[in-house]
């Protein structure tokens, strides 16, 4: 139990420091100090700072994959599925977990070898979850004149960048911002007959 709690404390400290200072400007010593763990003890849990970064990114992306997959399994209608995935992705991950979102967006390219490959595969899976539903919507004639590939990449770009400007102290709550993002994206890609459903959110 102690080993697990120490590892979690190191991860939590690293998330805070990577978010505040960036991966390159954070030392393994600083992570240990913030977590209250000696510098030498850190290496019982992680090989190096890069592994700490990978664990943060891997956990965040896999949790998002699980959340989107749950929505996918619950929705038979691809349009409703996209609407719910947009809300889930915006409200829970990009806004509620802004620190991890920033780290994924800004620091993923510091990973190498098997860690880089695993991260690419996770990101590709997230893209494919959206792309599969968008293809179904296009086949049903319910997608606006937008290429599904462009739509999928645009969804990821818009949602994943929201951490850059969203502020907890701002005029709109996290949920209100997520709703606005969902409306903007949903109504931009779905034919008007289906996009009217967004008002029921």
Question: How do the strands and helices of this protein lay out in sequence?
Answer:
Blueprint: H1 2-21, H2 28-35, H3 39-42, H4 49-74, H5 78-95, H6 98-107, H7 113-139, H8 148-160, H9 174-189, H10 192-195
Helix pairs in contact: 1-2, 1-4, 1-6, 4-5, 4-6, 4-7, 5-7, 5-9, 7-8
Plain-language structure description:
- There is one protein chain.
- The protein is an all-alpha fold.
- The protein is 73% helix and 0% strand.
User: What is the number of helices?
Assistant: 10
Radius of gyration: 19 Å
Let me know the number of strands. 0
Largest sheet: none
The assigned structural class equals: mainly alpha
- Segments where pLDDT lies below 50 for 5+ residues? none
Average pLDDT metric: 89
Strand content range: under 5%
Give the overall form. elongated
Query: What is the H/E order?
Result: HHHHHHHHHH
Q: What distance lies between the first and last C-alpha atoms, to the nearest angstrom? A: 42 Å
Q: Main traits of this protein?
A:
201 residues; mainly alpha; 10 helices; single chain; elongated
Task: Write a concise synopsis of the structure shown.
The protein is mostly helical and 201 residues long. It is built from ten helices and no strands.
